[in-house]
Design goal:
The chain has about 210 residues and is an alpha+beta fold. The protein folds into 2 domains: about 80 residues, 3-Layer(aba) Sandwich (Glutaredoxin); about 110 residues, Glutathione S-transferase Yfyf (Class Pi), Chain A, domain 2 (Up-down Bundle), CATH 1.20.1050. About 55% of the residues lie in helices and about 10% in strands. It is built from 9 helices and 4 strands. Strands 2-1-3-4 form a 4-stranded mixed β-sheet, covered by helices on one side. Helix 1 packs parallel to helix 3 and helix 4 crosses helix 7. It is globular, with a radius of gyration of 17 Å. The N and C termini lie far apart (about 40 Å). The model has no long low-confidence stretch (mean pLDDT about 100). Bound molecules: glutathione.
C-alpha cells in the first residue's frame, strides 16, 4: 500500500496541515510531495495530481482523493484501530458537526488572519473576525466540557476534529489572540503534540516567503 500526500508549503497551507496531522496520528506510513504555493508553476504542478487543482490531495495506489475532510475520513477508514473519530456515537456526531463547521465556515478569520506559522504579528481582530473567534472558543469549550473527559483534546483523545482546528491554533498564536483559560489550554495541548512540533519545525525551515495580508 503506497500512500502519498501532496501538500503546499508547511508554513502557509492550512488545508494541508489537517490530513497530514491525521496521517501522522494514524501511524500509517506515507510519503509527501510538497508543492510551494504561488509560484509560476504551482497550478500546473498541482494539477498533475489533483483534479480540483488544489492541495491537499491523497494518492493511495491508483486512487486519488482530494478535499481535506474527505482525506481525513479515508484515513480513519484505513486505520480503524486508531479511533480517529470518537468511539461514542454522540461524541462522533458532534465531532463531525464541528469539523464540517470548520471546513465550510469562518471565512473572515481565514482571509484576515491567514496561516503563517513562522510569523508573530499581534493583530486586533475586526468585528467579523472576532465573531468567528468567539464561535470557535464557544465550540471548543462545549466540546471540552461535554466530551473532553480526562484527555487534553476536544473529544478527550486526539480526533479528526482536532486536526480540523489545528490551523486555527497556529493563527491564535501567530496573531496573539487573547483567549479564555479553557481555549488557551487547548491551544497549548495542540502545540505540544509531537506531530505538530514536527510540522512547525519544518515550516520554520522553509525558505519561501509569500505575500500575506
Ligand atoms: N476545500 C479544500 C481547500 C483546499 C485549498 O484551498 N488549498 C489551497 C492551498 S491551502 C490551494 O491548493 N491553492 C492552490 C493554489 O494556490 O494554486 C480542501 O479542504 O482541501
Amino acid at each position: 500500500m503506497t500512500l502519498i500526500l501532496i501538500i503546499g508549503n508547511k508554513n502557509y497551507s492550512s488545508w494541508s496541515l489537517r490530513p497530514w496531522l491525521v496521517l501522522r496520528q494514524s501511524g500509517l506510513e506515507f510519503a509527501e510531495v510538497r508543492i510551494p504555493l504561488d509560484q509560476p508553476d504551482t497550478g500546473d504542478r498541482i494539477r498533475q495530481y489533483s483534479p480540483s487543482g488544489r492541495v491537499p490531495v491523497l494518492q493511495h495506489d491508483d486512487l486519488t482523493i482530494w478535499e481535506s475532510l474527505a482525506i481525513c475520513e479515508y484515513i480513519a477508514e484505513l486505520a480503524p484501530d486508531r479511533s480517529l473519530w470518537p468511539v461514542d456515537a454522540s461524541a462522533r456526531a458532534v465531532a463531525r458537526a464541528v469539523s464540517a463547521e470548520m471546513h465550510s465556515g469562518f471565512s473572515d478569520l481565514r482571509s484576515q488572519m491567514p496561516v503563517d506559522c513562522r510569523a508573530r504579528r499581534p493583530r486586533m481582530a475586526t468585528p467579523a473576525v472576532q465573531r468567528d473567534i468567539d464561535r470557535i472558543v464557544e465550540l471548543w469549550q462545549t466540546c471540552r466540557q461535554q466530551f473532553g473527559g480526562t484527555g487534553d483534546f476536544l473529544f478527550g483523545d486526539f480526533s479528526i476534529a482536532d486536526a480540523m482546528y489545528a490551523p486555527v491554533v497556529t493563527r491564535f498564536v501567530t496573531y496573539a489572540v487573547p483567549l479564555p483559560p479553557i481555549a488557551q489550554a487547548y491551544v497549548e495541548a495542540i502545540e505540544q503534540l509531537p506531530a505538530m512540533q514536527e510540522w512547525l519545525a519544518a515550516a520554520a525551515a522553509e525558505t519561501e516567503v509569500l505575500d500575506t495580508p
